[in-house]
Amino acid sequence: MDDFSHLSDIVRQNGPITALLITIVVILRLIFARLVSRNERLVAEARRRWSMYIRNVLFAVLVFGLIFIWAPQLQTFTATLILIAAAIAIATKELIACLSGAILRISTNAYTLGDRIEIGGVRGNVVDHNLLTTTVLEIGPGQTSHQYTGRAMIIPNSLLLTSTLTNETYTKKYILHITRVPLKTQDDWQTAEQILLEVGMAECKSYLEDAKKYMKQLEGRHWLDSPSVEPRVTLQLKEPGYIDLLLRVPCPPDRIARLEQAVLRTFMSRFSFAPVEANSTHKRL
After folding, report:
1. What is the DSSP code (8-state) at residue 170?
2. 241 φψ region: left (φ > 0), alpha (ψ -120 to 50), beta (else)
3. pLDDT per residue over 227-262, tens digit each?
4. CA proximity to 111, closest of 51, 61, 159, 182
5. Residue 155 to residues 97, 101, 113, 131: CA-CA distances in angstroms?
6. Which of 195, 200, 199 is nearest to 272 (CA)?
7. Are 98 and 157 within 8 A, CB to CB?
8. Under a CB-based contact definition with an 8 Å cutoff, are residues 221 and 208 in contact?
9. pTM above 0.85, yes or no
10. Which of 30, 52, 63 has the alpha carbon at shortest distance from 134?
Protein backbone atom coordinates (compact mmCIF):
# COMPACT_ATOMS: atom_id res chain seq x y z
CA MET A 1 0.00 0.00 0.00
CA ASP A 2 2.88 2.36 0.79
CA ASP A 3 4.29 1.78 -2.72
CA PHE A 4 0.96 2.58 -4.33
CA SER A 5 0.55 5.64 -2.12
CA HIS A 6 4.01 6.86 -3.09
CA LEU A 7 3.27 6.21 -6.75
CA SER A 8 0.04 8.19 -6.44
CA ASP A 9 2.01 11.10 -4.99
CA ILE A 10 4.43 10.95 -7.92
CA VAL A 11 1.54 11.03 -10.39
CA ARG A 12 0.00 14.07 -8.70
CA GLN A 13 3.37 15.82 -8.65
CA ASN A 14 4.43 15.10 -12.24
CA GLY A 15 1.00 14.96 -13.88
CA PRO A 16 0.64 18.73 -14.43
CA ILE A 17 4.20 19.02 -15.79
CA THR A 18 3.54 16.13 -18.15
CA ALA A 19 0.30 17.71 -19.34
CA LEU A 20 2.11 21.02 -19.89
CA LEU A 21 4.84 19.31 -21.92
CA ILE A 22 2.30 17.54 -24.13
CA THR A 23 0.38 20.78 -24.64
CA ILE A 24 3.53 22.67 -25.65
CA VAL A 25 4.53 19.94 -28.12
CA VAL A 26 1.05 19.90 -29.69
CA ILE A 27 0.99 23.71 -29.99
CA LEU A 28 4.47 23.76 -31.57
CA ARG A 29 3.38 21.04 -33.99
CA LEU A 30 0.38 23.11 -35.10
CA ILE A 31 2.43 26.31 -35.40
CA PHE A 32 5.22 24.73 -37.46
CA ALA A 33 2.72 22.86 -39.64
CA ARG A 34 0.94 26.11 -40.44
CA LEU A 35 4.21 27.91 -41.19
CA VAL A 36 5.30 25.16 -43.58
CA SER A 37 1.92 24.95 -45.34
CA ARG A 38 1.80 28.73 -45.86
CA ASN A 39 5.36 29.02 -47.19
CA GLU A 40 4.75 29.39 -50.92
CA ARG A 41 8.47 29.26 -51.70
CA LEU A 42 8.57 25.55 -50.79
CA VAL A 43 7.52 22.97 -53.36
CA ALA A 44 5.18 20.15 -52.33
CA GLU A 45 7.99 17.63 -51.73
CA ALA A 46 9.92 20.11 -49.57
CA ARG A 47 6.79 20.78 -47.52
CA ARG A 48 6.29 17.06 -46.95
CA ARG A 49 9.95 16.71 -45.93
CA TRP A 50 9.83 19.60 -43.46
CA SER A 51 6.52 18.38 -42.04
CA MET A 52 7.98 14.92 -41.50
CA TYR A 53 11.16 16.28 -39.86
CA ILE A 54 9.19 18.55 -37.54
CA ARG A 55 6.87 15.73 -36.50
CA ASN A 56 9.73 13.31 -35.78
CA VAL A 57 11.79 15.91 -33.86
CA LEU A 58 8.85 16.95 -31.69
CA PHE A 59 8.02 13.31 -30.99
CA ALA A 60 11.62 12.73 -29.86
CA VAL A 61 11.43 15.86 -27.66
CA LEU A 62 8.24 14.52 -26.08
CA VAL A 63 9.76 11.10 -25.38
CA PHE A 64 12.95 12.46 -23.85
CA GLY A 65 10.98 15.06 -21.91
CA LEU A 66 8.79 12.38 -20.36
CA ILE A 67 11.88 10.36 -19.46
CA PHE A 68 13.48 13.44 -17.87
CA ILE A 69 10.32 14.16 -15.86
CA TRP A 70 9.51 10.69 -14.65
CA ALA A 71 12.82 8.82 -14.38
CA PRO A 72 14.16 10.53 -11.20
CA GLN A 73 10.88 9.97 -9.36
CA LEU A 74 10.75 6.29 -10.19
CA GLN A 75 14.18 5.25 -8.95
CA THR A 76 12.70 3.49 -5.92
CA PHE A 77 10.67 1.32 -8.27
CA THR A 78 13.66 0.13 -10.31
CA ALA A 79 13.13 -3.56 -9.67
CA THR A 80 9.45 -3.34 -10.47
CA LEU A 81 10.16 -1.33 -13.59
CA ILE A 82 12.65 -3.95 -14.80
CA LEU A 83 10.01 -6.65 -14.54
CA ILE A 84 7.47 -4.43 -16.24
CA ALA A 85 9.99 -3.52 -18.95
CA ALA A 86 10.73 -7.20 -19.58
CA ALA A 87 7.02 -7.94 -19.91
CA ILE A 88 6.55 -4.96 -22.20
CA ALA A 89 9.53 -6.03 -24.32
CA ILE A 90 8.01 -9.46 -24.84
CA ALA A 91 4.57 -8.06 -25.59
CA THR A 92 5.86 -5.35 -27.93
CA LYS A 93 8.75 -7.11 -29.67
CA GLU A 94 7.38 -6.12 -33.09
CA LEU A 95 7.34 -2.45 -32.10
CA ILE A 96 10.88 -2.76 -30.77
CA ALA A 97 11.92 -4.38 -34.05
CA CYS A 98 10.35 -1.45 -35.94
CA LEU A 99 12.26 1.03 -33.77
CA SER A 100 15.47 -0.93 -34.36
CA GLY A 101 14.80 -0.81 -38.10
CA ALA A 102 14.34 2.97 -37.90
CA ILE A 103 17.67 3.29 -36.07
CA LEU A 104 19.31 1.18 -38.79
CA ARG A 105 17.76 3.37 -41.50
CA ILE A 106 18.94 6.59 -39.84
CA SER A 107 22.44 5.34 -39.04
CA THR A 108 23.07 3.99 -42.55
CA ASN A 109 21.11 6.68 -44.43
CA ALA A 110 19.51 3.80 -46.34
CA TYR A 111 16.84 5.99 -47.92
CA THR A 112 15.05 9.26 -47.47
CA LEU A 113 11.96 11.07 -48.71
CA GLY A 114 11.54 10.77 -52.48
CA ASP A 115 13.81 7.74 -52.93
CA ARG A 116 12.58 4.77 -54.95
CA ILE A 117 13.06 1.59 -52.94
CA GLU A 118 12.13 -2.08 -53.02
CA ILE A 119 11.82 -4.17 -49.88
CA GLY A 120 9.78 -7.21 -48.95
CA GLY A 121 8.34 -7.42 -52.46
CA VAL A 122 7.06 -3.83 -52.33
CA ARG A 123 8.49 -1.26 -54.77
CA GLY A 124 7.70 2.44 -54.81
CA ASN A 125 8.64 6.03 -53.96
CA VAL A 126 9.03 6.97 -50.30
CA VAL A 127 6.51 9.65 -49.32
CA ASP A 128 6.74 9.37 -45.52
CA HIS A 129 8.70 7.57 -42.81
CA ASN A 130 8.71 7.64 -39.03
CA LEU A 131 10.01 5.52 -36.16
CA LEU A 132 7.63 2.63 -36.90
CA THR A 133 6.72 2.59 -40.59
CA THR A 134 7.66 3.74 -44.07
CA THR A 135 4.97 4.74 -46.57
CA VAL A 136 5.60 4.32 -50.30
CA LEU A 137 3.51 5.00 -53.38
CA GLU A 138 3.59 1.66 -55.19
CA ILE A 139 5.13 1.42 -58.67
CA GLY A 140 4.33 -1.47 -60.97
CA PRO A 141 3.40 -3.93 -62.16
CA GLY A 142 6.68 -5.83 -62.25
CA GLN A 143 10.24 -4.66 -61.89
CA THR A 144 10.53 -2.80 -65.18
CA SER A 145 7.50 -0.52 -64.86
CA HIS A 146 7.79 3.09 -63.70
CA GLN A 147 4.10 3.94 -63.36
CA TYR A 148 2.22 4.52 -60.10
CA THR A 149 -0.45 1.93 -59.33
CA GLY A 150 -2.41 4.40 -57.18
CA ARG A 151 -1.86 2.38 -54.00
CA ALA A 152 0.00 3.53 -50.89
CA MET A 153 1.88 0.74 -49.10
CA ILE A 154 2.78 1.03 -45.41
CA ILE A 155 5.91 -1.00 -44.62
CA PRO A 156 6.92 -1.80 -41.01
CA ASN A 157 10.52 -0.78 -40.36
CA SER A 158 11.17 -4.25 -38.92
CA LEU A 159 11.54 -5.48 -42.52
CA LEU A 160 14.85 -3.60 -42.69
CA LEU A 161 16.25 -6.18 -40.25
CA THR A 162 15.10 -9.24 -42.20
CA SER A 163 14.88 -8.24 -45.89
CA THR A 164 17.28 -6.89 -48.48
CA LEU A 165 16.64 -3.25 -49.36
CA THR A 166 17.17 -1.94 -52.88
CA ASN A 167 17.47 1.83 -53.32
CA GLU A 168 17.08 2.58 -57.03
CA THR A 169 17.79 6.30 -56.56
CA TYR A 170 20.70 6.20 -54.14
CA THR A 171 22.66 8.73 -56.22
CA LYS A 172 19.72 11.17 -55.81
CA LYS A 173 19.91 13.86 -58.52
CA TYR A 174 20.87 11.57 -61.42
CA ILE A 175 20.72 7.81 -61.83
CA LEU A 176 21.85 5.47 -64.59
CA HIS A 177 18.74 3.98 -66.16
CA ILE A 178 18.72 0.91 -68.41
CA THR A 179 16.14 0.45 -71.18
CA ARG A 180 15.87 -3.05 -72.65
CA VAL A 181 15.00 -3.64 -76.32
CA PRO A 182 14.56 -7.32 -77.34
CA LEU A 183 15.37 -8.35 -80.93
CA LYS A 184 15.54 -11.54 -82.97
CA THR A 185 18.84 -12.63 -84.48
CA GLN A 186 17.47 -12.01 -87.99
CA ASP A 187 16.90 -8.34 -87.11
CA ASP A 188 19.57 -5.83 -88.15
CA TRP A 189 20.90 -5.43 -84.62
CA GLN A 190 23.85 -3.25 -85.69
CA THR A 191 21.46 -0.65 -87.11
CA ALA A 192 19.23 -1.01 -84.05
CA GLU A 193 22.24 -0.40 -81.80
CA GLN A 194 23.18 2.75 -83.69
CA ILE A 195 19.61 4.12 -83.64
CA LEU A 196 19.20 3.34 -79.94
CA LEU A 197 22.46 5.10 -79.09
CA GLU A 198 21.47 8.17 -81.13
CA VAL A 199 18.05 8.33 -79.49
CA GLY A 200 19.53 7.97 -76.02
CA MET A 201 22.07 10.71 -76.68
CA ALA A 202 19.37 13.05 -77.98
CA GLU A 203 17.14 12.49 -74.93
CA CYS A 204 19.83 13.22 -72.32
CA LYS A 205 21.80 15.85 -74.26
CA SER A 206 20.29 18.79 -72.33
CA TYR A 207 21.62 17.62 -68.95
CA LEU A 208 24.51 15.29 -69.85
CA GLU A 209 27.27 17.71 -68.79
CA ASP A 210 25.52 18.45 -65.50
CA ALA A 211 25.20 14.70 -64.87
CA LYS A 212 28.93 14.26 -65.45
CA LYS A 213 29.77 16.97 -62.92
CA TYR A 214 27.34 15.52 -60.38
CA MET A 215 28.78 12.00 -60.64
CA LYS A 216 32.26 13.47 -60.26
CA GLN A 217 31.14 15.17 -57.04
CA LEU A 218 29.82 11.83 -55.74
CA GLU A 219 33.21 10.28 -56.41
CA GLY A 220 34.91 12.75 -54.06
CA ARG A 221 32.13 12.69 -51.48
CA HIS A 222 31.67 8.93 -51.12
CA TRP A 223 35.09 7.68 -52.28
CA LEU A 224 33.51 5.88 -55.20
CA ASP A 225 34.79 5.33 -58.72
CA SER A 226 32.76 7.76 -60.79
CA PRO A 227 30.70 5.78 -63.34
CA SER A 228 30.69 6.94 -66.94
CA VAL A 229 27.42 8.68 -67.75
CA GLU A 230 27.90 8.66 -71.51
CA PRO A 231 25.02 6.77 -73.17
CA ARG A 232 26.08 3.28 -74.15
CA VAL A 233 24.48 0.15 -75.62
CA THR A 234 25.48 -3.37 -74.58
CA LEU A 235 24.37 -6.76 -75.93
CA GLN A 236 22.97 -9.74 -74.07
CA LEU A 237 22.38 -13.24 -75.44
CA LYS A 238 20.00 -14.87 -72.99
CA GLU A 239 18.64 -17.57 -75.27
CA PRO A 240 19.23 -18.85 -78.82
CA GLY A 241 17.60 -16.78 -81.52
CA TYR A 242 17.23 -13.56 -79.51
CA ILE A 243 19.37 -10.53 -78.70
CA ASP A 244 18.75 -7.93 -76.01
CA LEU A 245 20.02 -4.40 -76.52
CA LEU A 246 20.52 -2.58 -73.23
CA LEU A 247 20.65 1.22 -73.44
CA ARG A 248 22.14 2.92 -70.37
CA VAL A 249 21.61 6.67 -70.01
CA PRO A 250 21.75 9.16 -67.12
CA CYS A 251 18.36 10.42 -66.00
CA PRO A 252 16.77 12.43 -63.18
CA PRO A 253 14.73 10.03 -61.00
CA ASP A 254 11.46 11.85 -61.66
CA ARG A 255 11.85 11.51 -65.45
CA ILE A 256 12.52 7.78 -65.75
CA ALA A 257 9.13 6.82 -67.19
CA ARG A 258 9.02 9.73 -69.64
CA LEU A 259 12.58 9.13 -70.86
CA GLU A 260 12.02 5.40 -71.38
CA GLN A 261 8.78 5.97 -73.28
CA ALA A 262 10.40 8.65 -75.44
CA VAL A 263 13.32 6.35 -76.26
CA LEU A 264 11.12 3.37 -77.12
CA ARG A 265 8.64 5.36 -79.21
CA THR A 266 11.37 7.09 -81.24
CA PHE A 267 13.24 3.81 -81.71
CA MET A 268 10.09 1.99 -82.88
CA SER A 269 9.36 4.74 -85.40
CA ARG A 270 12.87 4.55 -86.90
CA PHE A 271 13.72 0.83 -86.85
CA SER A 272 12.25 -1.84 -89.12
CA PHE A 273 11.94 -5.28 -87.53
CA ALA A 274 12.37 -8.44 -89.58
CA PRO A 275 9.10 -10.09 -90.66
CA VAL A 276 7.71 -12.66 -88.25
CA GLU A 277 7.90 -16.19 -89.62
CA ALA A 278 4.45 -17.67 -90.10
CA ASN A 279 5.48 -21.13 -88.95
CA SER A 280 7.32 -19.91 -85.88
CA THR A 281 5.74 -21.36 -82.75
CA HIS A 282 8.50 -20.51 -80.31
CA LYS A 283 7.40 -17.95 -77.74
CA ARG A 284 9.91 -16.03 -75.70
CA LEU A 285 9.38 -15.91 -71.95
Report:
1. T
2. left
3. 788 899 999 988 888 999 999 999 998 888 899 999
4. 159
5. 13, 11, 14, 11
6. 195
7. yes
8. no
9. no
10. 52
